Amino acid sequence: MMARSGLKTGFAIAVAALGLLAAVTAQAARTETFANGIRATVHDASEVSAMCVGKADGSREFSHPLAGTVALDAATRTLYPFDVTFVTNALADMTGFSTDVEVEVFILDGIPTGIGSSFARRGAIFLSPSYAPVDAAITSYITTHEMGHVLTWAFIDGQPGRWDAPRPARAGPRRRRPRSLPCLPRPREPWPRTCATCSAACWLPAASAWKTTR
Asked: What are the residues facing 121 on neighbouring strands?
């Protein structure tokens, strides 16, 4: 009887260990290097959720050594995180440049506190969930937009001269833009100053600019 009991106990421990291993595997980040030179480590919603620490008001917070701390609002309705496959495909499909940059991508399962949308930091992208399923086209638009900020921080902000590199191909002199004007009415010319409206350098309008800056 004792032998059988020991066998059952050992079997139960093995099953529990396998279950734990499966859970860890499901939450493991995936790292891929694409033909364009982007090396992305993608953390899916379940992994990010596991990183979170809950608070009394229902909000949560997680920290990552490379990306810093992010607070998430308490959920008030069903949210739909981005699809991992759509995100990786979007990064892989970025063309017109060849680079060498690493980025941490966090697929959030909660809306970022005080931001309310997807955003980027130096070397990191945070994709905010939606109130409806996010299709491949919208995923691609948002992911590549945020990746554009990462590329800017990596290769342009520290080298102001690169803001002028696309200008010859676009023709015409660079025109000064009053800081009081909102982003959209301004001439679409790269300008290495902080925009008064969006508090960030206005983004280059086309990926073709990267052909001359990289």
From this structure: 124
Which pLDDT tens digit goes with each residue over 170-208?
A: 555 555 555 555 554 444 344 334 444 444 444 433 333
| Rounded Cα distance, 142 and 156, in Å | 21
Q: What is the pLDDT of residues 115-152, one digit of tens each?
A: 999 999 999 999 999 999 999 999 999 999 999 999 98
Look up residue 163 and give its two tokens. 């803001």
C-alpha to C-alpha distance for 98 and 57, rounded to whole angstroms: 45
DSSP 42-100: EE-HHHHHHH-EE-TTS-EEEEETTTEEEEEPPP-S--BPPPHHHHHHHHHT--S----
CA distance 61 to 55: 8
- Domain spans of the chain, in order of start: 24-155, 162-214
Q: What is the pTM of this model?
A: 0.66
- Tokens representing 151 are 């590329």
